[in-house]
Specification:
By secondary structure, this protein is of the alpha/beta class. The chain is built from 9 helices and 8 strands. It has a single domain, classed as Rossmann fold (3-Layer(aba) Sandwich), CATH 3.40.50.1820. 37% of the residues lie in helices and 19% in strands. Strand 5, helix 4 and strand 6 form a beta-alpha-beta unit. It starts with a helix and ends in a 9-residue tail after the last helix.
Length: 267
């Protein structure tokens, strides 16, 4: 087989590897946990690094793809004032955690391992892909009483196809690329869907999403909230995909939900 044929055959694999490889943030920022401690927990996906502060019921902060715990810094002070402990996790292949590649199921397995070590969590506040990771982990048995999912994507396959298209793969190449993660991570990206997991989850859940989000369409979280029994959805506007994490009204709504005070309104 000539070199051109070999390169064409390998291209979907290369694209799949790139899809699973997060880029580091341009600037590493610290989460404001002055009295916090660093935890290192061994998992099947490598060592995971977390920060923990406070002695109250633990609330997990879970960042998104190519993100970092500092993305959710606006939630720290309100949680501490309310008497909660804060637990922030570097996803696999992010920050100080081990690994070079990460997928939703890999991160979920790591999160389940963390839960087995630290015990039940009061709540989790997750952003973007972190929301999908949380749903997968809940499905696998992670114990969390309440879940806040911000800018939550619905279908992993949709993002994989978008990545393949941006990489220039044709239809045949895209289908080949979608098959490679099965070999690489032991999971089929076409099977990973938050609306598919949601009907089997029993935790009270609050979805928050901005209508102008250009990374994850608001329709994604609307579909997931509709499939999650008893879930509520807050639709905001003008906050995009990341500004939503620092908006005072969003933080207040999440805090009210964590404190079990129903201030939301379903659309």
């Amino acid at each position: 087989m000539n070199d051109a044929s070999t390169d064409a055959r390998r291209q979907p694999e290369e694209v799949a590897r790139a899809f699973l490889t997060p880029r580091p943030p341009k600037e590493r920022q610290a989460l404001p946990l002055e009295d916090g401690e660093v935890l290192r927990i061994a998992t099947s996906e490598g060592e995971v690094v977390l920060q923990r502060a406070g002695t109250g019921p633990l609330v997990l902060l879970l960042h998104g793809w190519e993100g970092q715990p500092a993305d959710l810094a606006a939630f720290v002070a309100p949680l501490r004032r309310a008497g909660f402990g804060v637990l922030a996790m570097d996803l696999p292949a992010h920050g100080a955690s081990a690994g070079h590649q990460m997928s939703i199921p890999q991160a979920a397995r790591a999160l389940v391992a963390v839960g087995k070590v630290l015990g039940p969590l009061h709540s989790a506040i997750a952003h973007s892909i972190g929301s999908a990771v949380l749903a997968e982990a809940l499905t696998a048995g992670l114990s969390v009483r309440r879940a806040v999912l911000i800018a939550a994507p619905a279908h992993y396959e949709r993002f994989a196809r978008g990545f393949a298209d941006a990489a220039g793969l044709d239809t045949r190449g895209t289908e080949a690329m979608l098959g490679w993660p099965q070999t690489m991570i032991g999971s089929d990206v076409r099977e990973i869907s938050l609306p598919r997991r949601a009907p089997h989850l029993v935790q009270p859940a609050l979805f928050i999403h901005s209508s102008d989000d250009r990374v994850v369409a608001v329709e994604d979280s609307l579909a997931s909230a509709a499939a999650w029994p008893g879930a509520h959805h807050i639709r905001v506007d003008g906050l995009g995909h990341r500004r939503i994490l620092s908006d005072a009204s969003v933080v207040a709504a999440a805090m009210a939900f964590v404190n079990t005070t129903p201030v939301w309104a379903s659309p």
